[in-house]
Amino acid sequence: MSDSQVVSNDVVVHGAEAGVQHEHLPYQRHHFETYAQQNDATNFAMWLFLLTEIMFFGGLFTAYLIYRNWYYPAFVQASHQLQIFWGTANTAVLITSSFTMAMGVWCAEMKKKSALVLCLTLTFVLGLVFLGIKFIEYKEKYDKNHIPGFHYSMQSFLNPQSDPEVYNEYHDKPLSFDMARHTELYFFLYFAMTGMHALHMIIGIAILGYMIFRAQAGAYTTGHVTFVENFGLYWHFVDIIWIYLFPLLYLISRH
Amino acid sequence: MTVHNDESIEEHESHHHIVSPRIYITILLALLVGTAVTVWASYVDLGEWHILPGITLFWNPVVALAIAATKMILVVLFFMHVKYSTKLTKLTVGAGIFTFIVLVGMTLSDYMTRAWGRW
Amino acid sequence: MSTNTIVSLPDQSTARIPKMNFISKEKGLLSWLLTGDHKRIAILYLVSITFFFFIGGALAGLIRLELLTPQSDLMATDTYNKVFTMHGIIMIFFFLVPSVPATIGNFFIPMMIGAKDLALPKINLLSWYLYIVAGILAIYTMAAGGVDTGWTFTTPLSTHYLNTHVLTTGIAIFIAGFSSIFTGLNFIVTIHKMRCPGMTWFRLPLFVWSNYAASILMVLGTPVLAIAIVLVALERVFGIGVFDPTKGGDPLLFQHLFWFYSHPAVYIMILPGMGVISETISTFSRKRVFGYTAVAFSSVAIAVFGFFVWAHHMFIMGISNYSMLVFSLLTMLVAVPSAIKIFNWAFTLYKGSITFETPMLYSFGFMGLFTIGGLTGVFLGSSGTDIHLTETYFIVAHFHFVMVGGMLMAFLAGIHFWWPKMTGRMYPEKISQFAAVVTFIGFNFTFFPQFILGTLGMPRRYASYPPEFQVLNVFSTAGATILGVGYLLPLLYLTWSLKYGEIAGENPWQATGLEWQTQSPPLTENYPAIPVMDHEAYDYEWLEGQKEKVASVG
Q1: Inter-chain contact C307–B109, Cβ cutoff 8 Å?
Q2: Distance in angstroms (rounded) separating the CA atoms of residues A35 and A13
């Protein structure tokens, strides 16, 4: 998934190294026989990397599924502490950013430089919006002492009426002390899973920033779209993780 | 400046098909609709199915996961171009999902069959 | 012993190491540290894992010394816990997992498929650097006081009851895990996408198939270990209770995630070794591997089935009866593909022209010892017997038979087999055969008594034991001394051979692989031109034909 300095589009002809002449494009690495092979190989490599990510998140999903079933009432009530508005907004933001990213790949394939830069920039901005909303949500959790390990408070669950904004919407019954304790586990999983997801977003946004510069320089609109395409795969994958996190964390039961 | 020989810029197999923006927009709308539906569904009690005495299936989580799975499939097939990709790519995606299911499924099967009264 | 040998060396009075090769191409430390050449990276790995092997070995020596006497008198029990923990961690993560893939695999997979390099040379180099960073962190941890949880980091011991360097060790293993993932990822891409013209899947050497299967395990399994370590770290730092029973968590969840990787990990370790054995058995019986397709598919079958059996490490830990049943049954199934390989190698030997060069001696050792280790695995896979044998020395003996008697012997077989190709020089045959025999004898003396100790009831990971177990323990330690000599010798004579070994020439073993049809050491780009594969694997008739061609031209 390399992104070489494209100076010209001329074919590079190599002289006799052991008497064999071969031509290849400037952005084709030497150990590949053809540009197509390089493309195939790097694309496949990115998919394999995404496989490792599936399994990495798999451990967290396993933990989540077990404890949600063990401590269902706690998970339901704790999930009411998350605001549907922000969660849905974030989902829409991320889905749209996936769209703009896919459009970016199309622009690169069609060699439309300014459109590509626009799409990448939109993706970048939407990514930042996502993180901004997450920050708002995390801050709210901090203010309400719902961060596990940091002065965690079970008040909202032992005595739901002490938390009017949530109570007025859901009218939860008070949980027993034993069950209320397990809301901390819900929030741990919330922060672990969304935090891990956010970390992947941050890395993605950083790479996007780099790509916008390179796109502006014309690196991706000369026929060498591999970098954009493979990054797109990564970005869509991060979107898919959120597609599952949203219903699992926010929509456990709102009735 | 364009090159005309064997090793010119070849469209590699999965690149042959450039997905049109029209498809992308359709998928985007489908995903957004799916999001709205899943939010709406969480506000409705969809009931349960008593399969056997002691084994009940609640429809809400099933519907939520089904919608999420559909969205995932749309993203994978169209945004990630897997519909137009080689068999190898499709096999790779399948292998990943399969291993994920083995991890989650077989681990959960241990928890579900413990007689701890928690499940 | 027969004086027959298949070794065919060029005339030593005129033979020279080829002037242009991957070692002479560029000079200087940076040309090695910033290389993209898979062969140089393989050598970097070889030096590194040898270093860690001897550290792990020293720790093993300390264990055996402590166990000479029933009392815990050589070191405090806490120290003993640290010693066996570090022994396990270093041997598994810093020696066994990268042993064959990162050295022989890195060096020869591109050559075996007729490619110029792996698909992702920079990722390959990154993989080595990650390994080194992880290794340095592990050594730092040892120096700073070590960790005493056992290599399995069982919760809640590792999360709540110990204050040793669990975190730093966890980080080291996390990083080493990514090193492994990148190696596996690279191999899969390379084998799929960079085979030379004519190299169909079923013409690949079986070594490639084995490493391919191991690579699938590396890519799919290791991330789960990574998340398990992350959760332990979070539990230790924030105490949220994901593994804490008093807060409603389940310690067994950690074990599920840990063993989901660590069981496939044992196949990651053994499969590349099995690949080596396929090559050596064929070469030293001058016969194609019997049942090529079966051996190839059995490698993949081991990889796939290996994902379904992890809870057989947890039979006594509190999993449900249903799980015990299912995992025990599946474990019986996973033994089948391994057995298929042993049968196929045996049938390869049958009516072959067998010679006893060092790689073959190690291969025979492998076949015998791996079979014993594997059979004892069946006792352990059966949950009824496992309840009595688990956490005793029976387990310790079982995994040392498969890992040391099996994998380490296969590694040594491979190093000796491909040494002439990597270095251009032969190792000294007589002393290496002697070392192989010493290793075999030492190994059996060390580990066979441990089966008996286990069935008698001696628990593992204990510094002190009832006095009636002492005789067998003394036997075991005596064997360990012999084993140590057996491992030290190759270090010495292989180093010696770099300067004084006979010039090997292109194909000292008259082997059929593509890597043997070019100079030793190879060119940086492996071949002057990309080869075309026009014959089946292990085609000794083709090889005869090549020799006749050369003879008739000359």
Answers
A1: no
A2: 14
- Report chain A residues whose CB lies below 8 A from the CB of B48: none
- Phi, psi for B53 (deg, rounded to 5): -55, 120
Query: ipTM greater than 0.90, yes or no?
Result: yes
Is residue C3 domain-resident? no
> Given CB atoms, is C482 within the 8 Å cutoff of chain B?
no
Q: Is B43 in the same domain as B24?
A: yes
Quick check: is B9 in a domain? Answer: no
The Cα-based distances of B87 to A48, B13, B92, C144, C185 in angstroms read: 14, 11, 8, 51, 18
How close is the nearest chain C Cα to the Cα of B49, in Å?
24
Average pLDDT estimate for C430-443: 97
- Angle formed by the axes of helices C38-66 and C106-113, to 10°? 140
The answer as to CATH 1.20.120.80 being correct for domain A35-251 is: yes
Domain count for chain C, please give it: 1
C379-402 pLDDT, tens digit each: 999 999 999 999 999 999 999 999
pTM of the model: 0.93
Nearest to A184 among C228, C240, C528 (CB): C240
Question: Is B1 inside any structural domain?
Answer: no
Domain boundaries, chain A: 35-251
Contacts of C58 by beta carbon, 8 Å cutoff, 6+ apart: none
B104 and B78 fall within a common domain: no
Token pair of A221 as six digits: 């609109």
Name the minimum distance, in Å, from the CA of C357 to any CA of chain B: 41
Q: Which tokens in the block code for residue C311?
A: 């809870």
Find the length of chain B.
119
Owning domain of residue C471: 31-553
Query: How far is Cα B83 from Cα B95, in angstroms, rounded to an integer?
Result: 16
pLDDT confidence of residue C391: 94
Closest alpha carbon to A202 in A254, A172, A238, A176: A238
A226-245 and A35-70 helices, crossing angle to 10°: 10
Domain count, chain B: 2
Residue C3: pLDDT over 80: no
DSSP labels for C145-169? T---STTTT-TTIIIII--SSHHHH
Length of chain A: 255
- What digits encode the pLDDT tens for the residues C323-382? 999 999 999 999 999 999 999 999 999 999 999 999 999 999 999 999 999 999 999 999
Q: Does A23 touch chain B (CB under 8 A)?
A: yes
Cα of C163 to nearest chain B Cα, Å: 29
Q: Inter-chain contact B68–A246, Cβ cutoff 8 Å?
A: yes
